[in-house]
Amino acid sequence: MSVQIDHLLHESRRFPPSPEFAAASVATESLYEQAAEDRLGFWANQARELLHWHKPFTRTLDWTNPPFAKWFDDGELNVAYNCLDRHVLAGDGDRIALHWEGEPGDSRSISYAQLTSEVKRAANVLIGLGVQAGDRVAIYLPMIPEAVVAMLAVARIGAVHSVIFGGFSAESLRSRIDDAEAVVVITADGGYRKGRVTPLKPAVDAALASGDSSVRTVLVVERTGGDVEWNERDKWWHEELAAVSDEHEAQAFPAENPLFILYTSGTTGKPKGILHTSGGYLTQAAFTHKQVFDLKPEKDVYWCTADVGWITGHTYVVYGPLANGATQVLYEGTPDTPHPGRWWEIIEKYKVSILYTAPTAIRTFMKIGRQEPQKFDLTSLRLLGSVGEPINPEAWMWYREVIGNHVTPVVDTWWQTETGAIMVSALPGLTVVKPGAAQVAIPGISIDVLGEDGHHVGHGNGGLLVVTEPWPSMLRGIWGDPDRFIETYWEKWPDAPNGPLYFAGDGARLDREGDIWLLGRVDDVMNVSGHRLSTAEIESSLVAHPAVAEAAVVGAHDETTGQAVVAFVIIKFSQTDAVSHADISAVLRAHVTLQIGAIARPREIFIVSELPKTRSGKIMRRLLRDVAEGREIGDTTTLADTSIMQIITDGMR
Ligand code: PRX
């Protein structure tokens, strides 16, 4: 477990909502009461109230074949219609959907009517390219409005998108394209990041260069105007969109029609394609976006800083806010370009009222200092959210005081790619919030903390976080691998008396009041700046390099990014003299960047002559973590050869 929080459980600060906030709260206590009384009836009501159904459902949940759930499965809807057309039909076509801000300072404000018409055109383009319902479309774009348009156009025609974060390499892109057998890739010539153009199209070209692939067409958005190589399968996005009509009637699809695949790292080398479907996902996305963020769509300006390449960008940039008819900010670049106050400048410019970001960003701003945000008018903010990693109380307090002017509620939201939407969070108009705790399951969600033996741990104790009942936005499987889906999430306690329990992979603790505190992953998954990385995936990349004999990777504590990737490698005997340690570190860091992407690049690589293993040959990561974090080495009694730790620590000096 990565975070030691025993001392935090003595946190005694409490912040109730202000009387004004509470009086105007969207959420009411009755939500908890209704959900407790009739959980399925509660979700059925939410699905009916929040969404437009072309064909109403009569069945709420089918859980006859666990863990394969079906929600609202005899109903039909169109996800894009719910995010677009119905708002225009309701008279809100002029409302701004996206205030987009490019990193170089260009900007566009796009109304719901304009976004709808753009998505209709893009849907017609995809249909013209022969994309059919159920086909997969890969999206590899920067944070530009076309990313939102592309996702909604795919959804509109009942196809399935697989968005691949722009920071992933050509190799990662190819393996995801192959796994899902995508027929079209939507990309851009490049994007702007840290004041420079970062090319994207060359990565797509490199990904598709070798062997046959399933991709027939690459649609290219012109963002930077840089030179690109052109292949027969390539088409310019703007030319294709200009050539088709902006009339397209949304067809209804079954509630369980797949909506997207999103790859995420697990405990093995191969990323998992997490599958989400339509009706249940959109219900919980819209519900949580409305209740957790206390959304008043007619007046709020909402900004979630996540990239659409991650689940937070799917649920809280695209589907939740647009289903709710919200006005939001979309920003292309990094927080510090061209100056360290860029985010605060954007908040002032658009009068952002709700901000949703990750603890890593907050800790980075803390380091820069309060003088930057204080140069800007942040008084429009009325609610702050945090996601992706545990937020330490110090960062939570700084967020509330410096960004939130001492009064703005902060909600810490726990969830995962697999859960699809928020599962644990305060509701800001109701809950008395505590710095550092994610606190309570949202209405309609059943969470518990269990010991290894499968029993509830009770207040004041730590254990493993589980979801005890199926939920609407739950993953429906791992693309193409039902066995892995069952083994990964549902088999920790196979004999649980009330049916299968979903094990989230996180450690958690209940405080004396029964509130939930997240403790970090308990498996070999790291969390770097709120991004999930697999130790096994980086290890297999390292050992694929000809100089490496063995590798072990751990997530070591990092003050800013939560965890950082630290690798221990054994160099092949034949290579030890060929290059210096410094060179080999640089070579291996570049190698991982090329194979997986810059986000997986190790912060440090230690060249060692042995790795600590148990007598059964398992690498003792706990000891390596001790070394990486500069601690005294812990218990080594199960180590096959205790002299190894000496060799490692000596080797590092
Ligand atoms: O370890 C938990 C951590 O992020 C993991 C999920 O990562 P991912 O699927 O990439 O989704 C991130 C955004 C939802 C979880 O298993 N995590 C997420 N939110 C929190 C968190 N840890 C502590 N507190 C949170 N609020």
What does this structure look like?
The protein is of the alpha/beta class. The chain is built from 20 helices and 30 strands. The chain has a domain at 529-652: 2-Layer Sandwich (GMP Synthetase, Chain A, domain 3), CATH 3.30.300. Strand 9 (190-193) and strand 10 (196-199) form a beta hairpin. Helix 11 crosses helix 12. The model has no long low-confidence stretch (mean pLDDT 94). Adenosine-5'-monophosphate-propyl ester (PRX) binds at residues 264, 311-312, 387-390, 412-417, 438, 504-506, 518, 521, 527, 532.
CATH fold topology of the domain at 529-652: GMP Synthetase, Chain A, domain 3
The percent range for strand residues is 15-25%
The CATH class of the domain at 529-652 turns out to be: Alpha Beta
Average pLDDT works out at 94
Structural class: alpha/beta
Shape, principal axes of CA atoms: globular
| Distance linking N and C termini | 27 Å
**What's the CATH superfamily of the domain at 529-652, by name?**
ANL, C-terminal domain
Radius of gyration: 24 Å
Helix content: 25-40%
Low-confidence stretches: none
Bound molecules: adenosine-5'-monophosphate-propyl ester
What's the number of extended β-strand segments? 30
Number of helices: 20
